[in-house]
Design goal:
338 residues; alpha/beta; Rossmann fold; Helicase, Ruva Protein, domain 3; Arc Repressor Mutant, subunit A; 13 helices; 49% helix
C-alpha cells in the first residue's frame, strides 16, 4: 500500500477548527461585547478607557472576545495601540513589560531594569492610548505591574477563570485598577452547537458531518467551546485517516477522549508541589468545602502553605479546569472535574 495514497478530504480549511482562530463575529456574547465596548469607547475620543475584568469558566469565550475587541478597536481608531499578554507564560513584572514592548515593536535588552521598561511603556502610552490585555492575570507572581500600569495611564483588560482573582489582591492595587466586572457564564448546549456548526461550515467540506453528530459534540463539551472545537477537529482528522466519507459518532467519542485527556495532562504539568497535593486530596474525596480541604491539607503536608497561598492554589486548579469552585470565599465548595 502506498504511503501517501489518496484519501477522502474532509477538512477544507483547518484554521476555523483551531481554538485560537478569531472569526469575523463572536457568537452568543452580545451582552459581554457591549459591556467591554463601553469600557473601551472613551479611547475613540481621546480619553483613558475604563479598566475591565473578564471572568468565567474555561472555554467561555473570554480570550476570544478580548482579542477580537482589541483588533476592532485598532481598526476603528488611530488613537489606540493594543497588546495581549498571557500571564501564565509571562508571569513576572519584567517578562510582562518586555512582552508589551515587543508587541509595540520596541525590543529591549533582557537585562534592563523593570523600572526602565515601565518608563518606555509610559512613553509609548503618551503617543497613543495603550490598552493591554493581561490574560490569566492571577498567574502573575506579583501585583506591582498592575499598580504601575494603571497609574501610568494604560488601559487594562484583565482575564481570569476565578471571579475572586481581583478581590484577593492588595487594596492599593484594587483601588488603582478599579475594574468593571464582566461575567462570562458557561455556554448552553444549543449555543455550543451553533458555534461549532459555524466552524464546520467554513472548516469542513459540505456533508462531512451531520447535525446529529454536531449535537453530540456540543453535548460532550459540557459548556466548553474550546473542548467542542478541538473535538471536532480531531474527529475530522480521525475520519480522514480512516478514509471515511463522513465523521461518525465513533470518531467523535474517540476524539473527545483524546482531547479531554490531553487537556488534563497539560493542566497537571502546570501544578507545583502544593497544588499536586491538593489535587490528590480532591481525587480521593471528590467534593469538599474549603474548610474541610484546608484541614486535610495541613494534616497531610509537613510544610503547608499559608491560607492565602492555599486559596490561590485552589483558584489555579479551578482555572485549569481540574476542579469546579462554587460559592463565596469562606463557604466555597470544590468538586473534582471528571
Amino acid at each position: 500500500m502506498p504511503l501517501f495514497e489518496k484519501r477522502n478530504v474532509l477538512i477544507r480549511d483547518e484554521q476555523p477548527l483551531l481554538e485560537y482562530f478569531i472569526p469575523e463575529n463572536i457568537m452568543h456574547r452580545e451582552g459581554q461585547k457591549q459591556e467591554l465596548a463601553e469600557c473601551l469607547r472613551p479611547v475613540t475620543v481621546g480619553r483613558k478607557p475604563r479598566n475591565a475584568f473578564l471572568y468565567g469558566p474555561c472555554g467561555t469565550g473570554k480570550t476570544l472576545l478580548v482579542q477580537w475587541m482589541l483588533r476592532e478597536l485598532e481598526g476603528h481608531t488611530s488613537r489606540a495601540r493594543t497588546a495581549y499578554v498571557n500571564c501564565w507564560k509571562r508571569n513576572t513584572t519584567h517578562a510582562t513589560l518586555t512582552e508589551i514592548l515587543s508587541q509595540l515593536d520596541i525590543y529591549v535588552n533582557y537585562r534592563q531594569a523593570a523600572t526602565d521598561l515601565l518608563k518606555l511603556v509610559e512613553k509609548e502610552s503618551e503617543k497613543k492610548q495603550l490598552v493591554v490585555c493581561l490574560d490569566e492575570v492571577d498567574s502573575l507572581e506579583g501585583q506591582e505591574v498592575l499598580y504601575d500600569l494603571a497609574r501610568s495611564g494604560v488601559g487594562l483588560v484583565m482575564v481570569s477563570n476565578d471571579a475572586y482573582a481581583l478581590m484577593e489582591m492588595d487594596q492599593r492595587v484594587k483601588s488603582s485598577v478599579n475594574a468593571e466586572y464582566i461575567e462570562f457564564p458557561a455556554y448552553k448546549e444549543g449555543e455550543i452547537f451553533e458555534i461549532i456548526r459555524e466552524r464546520a461550515k467554513y472548516g469542513l467540506v459540505p456533508g462531512a458531518i451531520r447535525q446529529s453528530e454536531l449535537k453530540m459534540v456540543a453535548r460532550l463539551a459540557d459548556g466548553d467551546a474550546r473542548i467542542a472545537i478541538e473535538t471536532l477537529r480531531r474527529a475530522a482528522m480521525a475520519a480522514e485517516d480512516k478514509g471515511e466519507e463522513r465523521i461518525t459518532a465513533t470518531h467523535i467519542r474517540k476524539a473527545f477522549g483524546t482531547t479531554h485527556l490531553l487537556r488534563k495532562t497539560e493542566a497537571l504539568k502546570k501544578l507545583n508541589s502544593h497544588e499536586k497535593a491538593l489535587y490528590l486530596l480532591m481525587e480521593k474525596h471528590k467534593k469538599l468545602n474549603t474548610k474541610e480541604l484546608w484541614e486535610k491539607y495541613i494534616k497531610a503536608d509537613k510544610k503547608p502553605a499559608s491560607q492565602r497561598s492555599y486559596r490561590n492554589y485552589m483558584g489555579h486548579l479551578a482555572k485549569l479546569g481540574l476542579v469546579k469552585a462554587r460559592g463565596e470565599l469562606t463557604g466555597r465548595e470544590y468538586e473534582l472535574m471528571a
